[in-house]
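To fix ideas, we close by showing one paired sequence and structure record:
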Amino acid sequence: MWGGAPPPLPEQIQPESPPMPKPPVTPVEPIQPVRVPEPTRPTKEPTVEEALKSVYFDYDSAVLRDDARATLDENITWLKANSTVRVQIEGHCDERGTEEYNLALGERRANAAKQYLIKNGIDASRLFTISYGESRPVDPGHNETAWAKNRRAQFARYD
């Protein structure tokens, strides 16, 4: 006997399939970069001191000038739109006059601005006054230009 297992069968060889044809190359237009807009930052709300403008007075006067009324009208618009804000109205004077006189004049100036705001619809409970007299000049000069800047009623947040 020749015995044993039959010889292994040669593996069947599969005929090679023909290579797949390459897809045709289609020219593509280059992609233009797209400008992405910067993310918008939330607008910073102005502070009371930035939003409410000072009003100015003539020498030795607490009478509101026409330009002061126009400025106060703008302030009224802002105050009505920001109805929870409470403000301090600060009365200021130039360096001429005694300290006592200027404290009283500064108080009259602050009150003139306050009364105008109240008359035009701002609740009095939101408004507080103080006089600094001549103690807080915005311009330290000793001439009419400096003095005119210092004769004012100025606004600040009241907390």
The beta strands are 55-56, 87-92, 127-133, 152-157. The chain has a mean pLDDT of 90. The longest helix spans residues 99-119.
